[in-house]
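Lab notebook page, bench 4
Experiment: in silico fold of construct C2
Operator: M.H.
Input chain length: 200 residues
Purpose: comparison with the prior construct
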Amino acid sequence: MSFKYYDLLSNLTIGIIVFYAIWKCFLPDSDISEWVVIPAGYVVGYFVDAISSLIEPLLFRTICGRPSDKLLTPIPGQKWTGIKKVKFYHAEEAVKALREDTRDDEADTGKMFGYAMRMVNANKDCRVPDFNGHYALSRVILTTVIFTVVIVEIKFFCVWYSWPISLAVLFLAWNRFMERGYYYAREVLNEYLKTRKGNK
C-alpha cells in the first residue's frame, strides 16, 4: 500500500489541523500523545476529504457554477470565457470539436467536459493529473478552513479580531478554490484540443 503526496497533504496534514483545532479549543488541558494525534488526524482528514467531495456542488454554487460549464459557454461579443485571471480563448472550437466527437449536436457542457476528461486521462504524459491534484487539495483546504472557522468562532465568538481574521482566511481559501477549479478545467480542454489535433 503506497501513499501519494495528495493523500499525505489532504488526509494527514489537513486532519491534524482540524484535530488540533478541536483539541485546543475544547480540550485545552488534556494531554494527548503524538502517537494518537497522527492516526486520529488521518481519520479526521479522511472524513474531511469525503465531506469536501460531498459538498462540492454547494461550493460550485458560491462561484456561480462549475468552471467547466463556464469555459464551454461562449459569450457573444467576448473572445474568451472563464474569469479574468483564468481565460479560455477556444470555447467555440472546443464545443464544435466535442459535439463532433460525441456525435451529439445537442450535447450539454457536462457531457462534453466528461468526454474531454476521458480523452485526456488516457494520456499519462500530460499535466492534467497535477492540475486535478491541486484542485482537489484546494477544495479540501477550503472545507478545512470552513470547519476550523466554525470551531474557532464557537470558542472565541466574543473576541472581535477573530472575525476579520477568520473571514480573510476564508476568502483566500475560497478564491484559491475557484482559481484552481478554472485552471484544472482549462487544462483539460487545452489538452483535449492538443490531443485531438495530434491524432489527425
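Observations: Residues 13 and 70 are 32 Å apart (CA to CA). Strands lie at 81-82, 87-88.
Next step: discuss at group meeting.
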